[in-house]
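Proteins fold reproducibly. Look at a sample protein:
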Amino acid sequence: MMWQRLLGIGVIAALGTAACSPAVEPAAEPSRDGVKVLVLYDMEGITDALQPSDVSSGSPTYEATRASLVEDVNAAIRGLFAAGATEIVVTDGHGSGSPNPDYILDRMPDGAYHEIRDEPYDPYIDVIDGSFTAMVAIAMHSKAAGGGFLAHTYNGHTRWTMGGHDMNESMLVAASAARFGVPLILVTGDDVLGQEVAAFSPATEYVVVKTAESVERAVARPRDEVSADIEAAAERALLNVANIPAWTGDPPASFDNDYGYILPQQAGVALGFPGATVVDDKTVRVQTSNFLEAYLAFRALAGFTGLATQRILVTGVRAEEGGADLLRRAQGRLPSRAERSFDPTGTTLRRGYGNHGYR
């Protein structure tokens, strides 16, 4: 019966949290209303995202990809409710450039809701807390240089090895949830990511939704089969939550993070980060004491190092015929020397985390 299932999940969730290592941050008071699950989605691992343009807003195929995303997410929601979930929070982990969440909000099943905030937020660290019983990651992708469809870690030019673990974003969200003793119980994506998830968290359920033929091409499994498999896996995962440990990566009290980049110029920018040392001409090393510290350094450097790419492009444009004149006109959009001022023009500053679900 339903009340027995809910009671059982509540008990096993509490036991799972108690079994976490001492390095896990103290969990907040568990939800008193029942079994609360966080569903984070990306887009590269959507069943019918088969070419790079499918996951970018404004492309001709974007709306069809959104519809496929809804099917993947809603299949997971159905399975979680069947297993006794009483509250499901959905958050956008992609940021396609659309001013709205990539999920189609009016397709949300009753009992689930999309996280919408008044200010930008980082879905990887700002949504999860100790009130959740479990976390699910839908439509994820393989790590940087992993070879899967649209493989990357956070953005296209960065790579992160945390305490010896070559990170993908499923590992990232798992480690973030583990700060509160919350396990990542289900992931969906292509076949390459499936191998990565099996290696770092073999107890986590995984559904292969498509086969990666290359970084820019994938072949989808039949829609009905995928939906049925995701629904069944979500139900199994939540019922088995006590046997799926939170993944911390088991880092020591102080550990190294190797932050790698596509271009030496990007690594050169990263070397200016406090405490950064050289590993090679594309990699710097930063020592941290916990996951959050390591992630914040990684996130900051991902933004800083992107500026090196812009400088390379500016240099390239200047070398082209007519490029110098084009740059002079573009520079006219910036304040002149006489106009430069440090006086504030407002009282708020918006954080650039992408449009993950804020007004």
